[in-house]
Design brief:
Blueprint lengths: L1 H7 L8 H4 L10 H9 L24 E5 L2 H13 L3 H8 L5 H4 L5 H10 L11 H13 L6 E5 H6 L1 H12 L8 H8 L1 H6 L1 H4 L10 H4 L7 H5 L2 H11 L5 H8 L10
């Protein structure tokens, strides 16, 4: 949404966000259709992907914007987003089957989060696991000095959206008139996007049970709130074996106003 607002410089976008920024690796839409859609666009293109940075081609014409947040908050978001998916419709659309006991019958959040922390998996095969999340962010962190890789912390977007949007505009080489900024920033707030969930939520195929539930909370801390002090210590110990300390300090910092990354 931020990229769309910066490119078009109006909250009244010319098309749905899903059409303007197609999800490149969404299996429900064929690759040929996505490529044709992108080829037909006359505006500066901005593409959504869930593929980690090391799975994308390096192209000097592209700026790679990589969001990060506390991994425990990422996990809680994954848990709730998973519960908001119509699994049966996904099975029909993709023609793929998955174990119903795994997809449809999950344990309570606390139990699930403890299991997520303990997962010992190949990060390349389990992108949403703790090893997978930290693998991806470590790679992006190591490339952050490059002109074309920009890291954005979720908490910075929550606490100072105006400053972060201006920073991204600078990195993208986009000029915005001063009088235009307030409307663009307001349109990108969590509250405004949640109010427009039916037109904003990325759901072209109707796989979400509730569009507003996609915008569930909009703040941080749900991960640490779920665990006991002892469980948190164990999580932090495991995380230090998977990522550099400076990255973990950036991800785990208590306030989005301190120590912004690049």
């Amino acid at each position: 949404m931020i990229c769309a607002l910066l490119i078009f410089q109006t909250p009244e976008l010319p098309d749905s966000l899903t059409n303007l920024s197609p999800w490149l690796d969404w299996l429900i839409t064929s690759r040929a259709d996505v490529y044709a859609q992108l080829a037909g666009q006359a505006h500066r293109r901005f593409i959504k992907t869930h593929t980690p940075l090391d799975g994308l081609p390096v192209d000097t014409r592209v700026t790679y914007i990589v969001p990060g947040r506390h991994p425990l908050d990422t996990a809680v978001s994954l848990y709730h987003q998973g519960g908001n998916l119509d699994r049966e419709r996904i099975r029909r659309l993709t023609g793929r089957s998955e174990p119903r006991s795994i997809a449809d019958h999950r344990p309570p959040l606390h139990q699930w989060l403890l299991g997520w922390i303990e997962q010992d998996v190949d990060p390349r095969d389990a992108l949403d696991s703790l090893p997978g999340v930290l693998w991806h962010l470590t790679d992006a962190w190591n490339r952050r000095a490059a002109q074309d890789v920009v890291l954005v912390h979720y908490d910075d977007l929550v606490h100072d959206l105006d400053a972060e949007m201006r920073r991204l505009a600078g990195r993208l080489g986009i000029s915005v008139a001063e009088e235009t900024w307030p409307a663009l920033v307001h349109a990108a707030t969590f509250a405004r996007m949640r109010a427009r969930a039916d037109s904003i939520a990325p759901d072209p195929s109707g796989v979400l049970k509730d569009h507003k539930a996609f915008f569930r909370r909009g703040s941080s801390g749900s991960g640490t709130e779920t665990l006991t002090g002892e469980e948190l210590v164990h999580y932090y110990q495991r995380a230090t074996t998977m990522a550099p300390l400076d990255l973990l300090e950036w991800l785990h910092r208590p306030s989005g106003l301190e120590g912004r990354g690049n």
